[in-house]
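Format notes (please read before filing issues)

Several people have asked whether sequences and structure tokens are stored in separate files. They are not. Every record keeps both together, in the order shown below: the sequence lines, then the token lines. Line labels are part of the format and must not be stripped during preprocessing.
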Amino acid sequence: MKIFKHNGRHLATAAGALAAGLLATAALTGTAYADTLSVTPGTQAYWISPGYDSLNISVAGGSTAFGTRIIQWPNDGGAEQKWFFDAVSDSGTLVGYMIRNDNSGMCIWTDDQVGDTLYQGPCDPDSDQDVFGWHAASTVDNFFIQAASPNLALDVSGDSYNWGADIDGWYATKAWNQDFFVTATSS
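Then the structure lines:
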């Protein structure tokens, strides 16, 4: 299995195609969704990595249990570090993405509390807690990932470089610890 290493300048071609579509996504408002939600499962897995340290977003210990925290960890090629972006649409209009783990089949969740660690839970498009929007970050190659409600951003807790550091939900500052690379995996 090929392991992708980020050089701070370029995304893989497949991720670039994803990027073009994601940049067109409007900001999420946190309003309730209608009963017309549909989900289009993503078919390409991606690594998600903070741009400043290139560690991967991962489910702690490769767990498949509800409530397991989301952390950063060196790329080991494991399925607990591979993520799919399942498009959530309301009456045909894209409202965001559920970020689904390849290993557990669960999605990244927030409890809506600033500073609390993100965790995995069931993928449920009717819950704002697991629907995320994408916005361009500091460069074309990086992204800022924000929850639908209450607009908390994915954030490496305390700007940490440490293996196992928590990924939390924090005020959307677009700081460097909220700036992520998204790179297609080879399988």
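For reference, the curators noted about this record: Residues 152 and 169 are 5 Å apart (CA to CA). Residues 13-184 form a domain with the Trefoil (Acidic Fibroblast Growth Factor, subunit A) fold (CATH 2.80.10.50).
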